[in-house]
Amino acid sequence: MTVSEAVAKRISRLLIEKGMTQYRLEQKSGVQHGSMQCIMNGRNKTVTLSTVIMIARGFDMSLIEFLDDDVFTTEDLEVE
């Protein structure tokens, strides 16, 4: 799994956990719809740290809280 895929997976889980729509996350985070779609659909091969911070803030969490998930600690995580 790539880092971008891990970010998309984490977003999907948090959307369900928090009962939030992707549209609401886009509004709260300031990440444009097209960019979010590219992340979620796997068309984006790299996700910048700035974007991840914006997404974390959209979930009302710190970057550390966002990254504190097994999806980022797996040995199979591919770093581009």
**Total strand segments:** 0
Oligomerization state: single chain
CATH architecture designation: Orthogonal Bundle
How many H/I helical runs?
Answer: 5
Number of domains: 1
The shape is globular
CATH topology name: 434 Repressor (Amino-terminal Domain)
* Low-confidence runs: none
Distance N to C terminus: 11 Å
Which range best describes the helical content: under 10%, 10-25%, 25-40%, 40-55%, 55-70% or over 70%?
Answer: 55-70%
Superfamily at the CATH H level? lambda repressor-like DNA-binding domains
* Series of secondary-structure elements, N-terminal to C-terminal: HHHHH
Structural class, by secondary structure, is mainly alpha
Strand content: under 5%
Descriptive account of the structure:
This protein has 80 residues and is mainly α. It has one domain: Orthogonal Bundle (434 Repressor (Amino-terminal Domain)). It is 59% helix and 0% strand. The protein is built from 5 helices and no strands. Helix 2 crosses helix 4. The model has no long low-confidence stretch (mean pLDDT 93).
